[in-house]
């Protein structure tokens, strides 16, 4: 995942929670194949800069993706796109 500015993809004043918007954006990259299985996601700090949201928002988005089985969090190593069955 490149570190381009993705803040335009998030509606800060919208009714949909920001963490849900971030999770949906990353999920779209995963399902489209832009992020391959095993690919490492940027760090929380990098994602915070990309989306211009708080670290809490990024953590919640990653938790959402993990709960859906799209990413695997390996503490101390990073967050990786889950292998597809």
At a glance:
The protein has 85 residues and is mainly alpha-helical. It has three helices and two strands.
CATH homologous superfamily annotation: Winged helix-like DNA-binding domain superfamily/Winged helix DNA-binding domain
- Which CATH class? Mainly Alpha
**Mean pLDDT over the full residue set:** 94
Number of separate strands = 2
Per DSSP, what share of the residues sits in E-state strands of 2 or more residues? 5-15%
Fraction in helix: 40-55%
Q: Which fold name is given in CATH as the topology?
A: Arc Repressor Mutant, subunit A
Strand order, main sheet: write it out: 1-2
Structure description:
With 85 residues, this protein is mainly alpha-helical. The protein is built from three helices and two strands, in the order H-H-H-E-E. The protein has a single domain (16-81), classed as Winged helix-like DNA-binding domain superfamily/Winged helix DNA-binding domain (Arc Repressor Mutant, subunit A), CATH 1.10.10. It has helices spanning 18-32, 44-51, 55-67, and strands at residues 71-74, 78-81. It has a two-stranded antiparallel sheet. Strand 1 (71-74) and strand 2 (78-81) form a beta hairpin. The radius of gyration is 12 Å and the shape is globular. The protein starts with 17 loop residues before the first helix and ends with a strand.
């Amino acid at each position: 995942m490149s570190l381009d500015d993705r803040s335009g993809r998030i509606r800060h004043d919208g009714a949909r929670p920001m963490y849900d918007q971030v999770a949906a954006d990353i999920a779209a990259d995963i399902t489209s194949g832009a992020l391959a299985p095993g690919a490492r996601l940027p760090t929380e700090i990098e994602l915070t800069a990309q989306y211009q949201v708080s670290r809490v928002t990024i953590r919640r988005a990653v938790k959402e993706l993990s709960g859906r089985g799209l990413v695997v969090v390996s503490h101390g190593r990073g967050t990786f796109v889950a292998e597809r069955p």
